[in-house]
DNA sequence: GTCGTTCCAATTTTT
DNA sequence: TTGGAACGAC
């Protein structure tokens, strides 16, 4: 059979296996995704209906690629009928049909993080809690964490309150859910929670989906959260075939609720689960695997796995040292030119990874200067930009008039003389009369607190919206948005402003129009509702264009599942990678280490690791020390490209002089500064462990602000503080 | 209600 | 350093 031909023995076994739940646990590049792909193709060839297969991937892009591969394998367009996508997109699709059973309408909006945060923010204002010192985004994050652990408001309030912050969150949490519901909207977590509620409460529906999905396959299983796992447990029953694949060493979304425990529990929860282990890596050179292994073995908790390759030894990992982030970027550009010149590589073969998006700035600049074309994957995503979101908000309100967040966004965009005071009055009226804000606009003349002149503005706005509600079924999406953009005059507005930001916005609006036209071309007869759903669930990598010839830049998180011949891992310095704040626990550093492992294992032939001795952070120079991960790399597979201070020493503990070198020569080595600098870890006799977050003054008057454990921050005179460096 | 100025947190990572 | 929120003047 053709489908099995390009597989090794274990892979074949796993593809063909059909006697019950199975999990494929294997290291990077061992062909997990490949097995999953071939398995699906195999099942279809066996005569199983594609529409009875549910295949869950981590990104939409991965889903599309998998579909294409399957198409190539079975040569039939049947692949289109597979239920394939991310958990979020699949279950939002199911909710479009089933949500009415929960009291939502099927045109519900999907709130992304920003929408959710702004909902929280508006709630704080409405509840007069703006003085409570609550950061809306922290509140939202906390709520989201509970939701994806399936901890409901009552339970949270009862069992999980540890401090005053939790208490306030517990107060807000039920109202937050209520508001979402009233807005006929769901946040990302609801897209998983609501299906769980539905399937738990409606046995007929459960039966329907259980018989619908005869095969369930999950890629990147190590990064599923509790809600996702619960969904799987619900859907899988006696006859369902379930196959999951994952690598615990690549779990990098713990902060988003993902739990490796799911992998360990699988055997327990799914009876007679069979484990397959793939041990041959087909992606990388021996040296790269050695380097990756030397990193990951520093993590204590791991599922034991072997990984070997018959590929060549290849080149060592090359370390590039630089003085600051500009220098780093320049050296990367220089090295890329050399790679291309000497190795017949194309730009597409090279990727530059970073820990945090901000790092891309300096690199972009250097690449532009050196005339190296690049693309940024993810980052401040296109659909996240303000002007784009504003226009999308118009579309959303046309579909779902209860979507108050969207309505608030556009109420005064572009400016039409409806200010905050009037909006507050309108909301009060809406709450009092149990109306939506949208309905309130129809009765604006009853809201006597709003000035007459402004009532007229509201009326005008309402007429505009009504007109487009009317038009939305008559025009295509692109015609609709073009007409709207014209009507609103935003293009003209940006042009007249004439600043460089405005021009950027102008461009972005044009790009939005173009992208909608493209979207229409790719998905004929698509409905506005579906377009909006897709847009909210679009991941950064989903937009990645692999056709054009350019370098790829992205965060390591976005690089998951991808592979490139040459990989640059940049900013390998303490406090960047591992990026940690104040007091990180081992488990957080372990996740950073897994992230580093993911980064290395994306590479086929060559890894560069770069770091800088200083970089601008928050507008001031911060002196960096190189990442512990660099020291963890197996010396035998590492070379230094430009160590101006001699060869890397194998010493684990740095000497005082090394420390000096680390921090550069343009540094004042006076006693107190050497010892105390921003970022230094210190201990205090009374307060214990801490980290310096600011230093002011000098000499006897020098003050240091230290963040101690348990959220205690103190500003002390260094003369008396007697801080000891650790 | 709008515009300009000042002030402050942000640089985690994203479905 | 930057962008958004907050504040005050008109
Ligand atoms: N039996 C095989 N023969 C040749 N090449 C293979 C084989 N199995 C996998 N590969 C290749 O190895 C590379 C890695 O495969 P794949 O992406 O499926 O691995 P993975 O285990 O999912 O990796 P990761 O977990 O790192 O994302 C791919 O280029 C794939 O084509």
Q: Descriptors for this entry?
A:
single chain; 726 residues; Rossmann fold; Arc Repressor Mutant, subunit A; 5 domains; 7-stranded parallel beta sheet; 6-stranded parallel beta sheet; binds adenosine-5'-triphosphate; DNA-binding
Q: What is the general shape?
A: globular
Number of domains: 5
Provide mean pLDDT, rounded.
Answer: 86
Instruction: Give the termini distance in whole angstroms.
Output: 62 Å
CATH C-level class of the largest domain is Alpha Beta
Note the beta-strand portion. 5-15%
Q: Compute the gyration radius: what is it?
A: 28 Å
Helix/strand structural class? alpha/beta
Q: Percent of residues in helical segments?
A: 40-55%
CATH superfamily heading of the largest domain: P-loop containing nucleotide triphosphate hydrolases
Please name the CATH architecture of the largest domain. Answer: 3-Layer(aba) Sandwich
CATH topology call of the largest domain: Rossmann fold
Largest sheet: 7 strands, parallel
Count of discrete alpha- or pi-helical segments spanning 4 or more residues:
31
Poorly predicted runs are 644-674
> What is the oligomeric state here?
single chain
